[in-house]
Amino acid sequence: MKYPNGIKQTKSSNNHIKYDNRGMNLEKDLNDSNNYYAEIGKAFIYKKPTPIQITKVDYPSRSHAIIKEAFFKEPSTTDYNGIYKGKYIDFEAKETNNKTSFPLDNIHKHQIKHLENIHKAGGLGFVIIRFNKLNVTYILLAEDFLNFINENERKSIPIKYFEEKAYLIEEKYIPRLDYLKVIDQILGGI
């Protein structure tokens, strides 16, 4: 039988289908969606690079440098930022395999502070959280995210909080994650 791209789906010896790299697709889905938005001129939202300091490089040939050693110059802020309808957008994207809650230790304190600063300055800050095993992805506004952290002692945000406060992102073919449709709801047609 001929398979797409010549790749045959394999099963392990215990008859379970292999799902290599499953659950590691949120960033790809967001990048694909952002590329689509940029191509049609709807929004310009970019993945932020992580600032590193290179300390050792190997040059096996003139055209192929290999970084052998580097360190983080400073903590990065959030994953994405850009502009949509004249509004500054800044967000962090995370995935979890947990079915009942999102562990807060997945987001660093400097990222939380950054989202707070964006919110205070009038930008639109939020987190996009994908619950892999539930196959759902949410936008939780910075305000609701920060309220939860400030009002609770919990070390995780329960799924019920997302169901009540967050916005479900529709998955489709193009764009894969139409999160700007949700942003339109939030902004109220600006």
How would you summarize this macromolecular structure in one to three sentences?
The protein has five helices and ten strands, in the order H-E-E-E-E-E-E-H-E-E-H-E-H-E-H. It has 190 residues and is of the alpha+beta class.
Explain this structure to me?
The chain is of the alpha+beta class and 190 residues long. The chain has a single domain (22-187), classed as Trna Endonuclease, Chain: A, domain 1 (3-Layer(aba) Sandwich). 27% of the residues lie in helices and 32% in strands. The chain is built from five helices and ten strands. The strands form three sheets. A six-stranded mixed β-sheet has the order 1-4-5-7-8-10, with helices on both faces. It starts with 25 loop residues before the first helix and ends with a helix. The relative contact order is 0.14.
Any chance you could write out the topology, listing elements then pairs?
Layout (H helix, E strand, L loop, with lengths): L25 H14 L4 E4 L4 E10 L2 E9 L7 E5 L2 E10 L4 E3 L5 H12 L3 E8 L4 E6 H10 L4 E3 H7 L1 E2 L10 H9 L3
Parallel strand pairs: 5-7
Antiparallel strand pairs: 1-4, 2-3, 4-5, 6-9, 7-8, 8-10
Keywords:
alpha+beta; globular; Trna Endonuclease, Chain: A, domain 1; disordered N terminus; six-stranded mixed β-sheet; 190 residues; 10 strands; 5 helices; two-stranded antiparallel ribbon; 27% helix
Number of domains: 1
How widely separated are the two ends?
52 Å
What is the level-2 CATH architecture name?
3-Layer(aba) Sandwich
The helix content is 25-40%
Percentage beta strand: 25-35%
Biggest sheet statistics:
6 strands, mixed
- Rg: 19 Å
Order of helices and strands: HEEEEEEHEEHEHEH
CATH fold-level label = Trna Endonuclease, Chain: A, domain 1
Strand tally is: 10
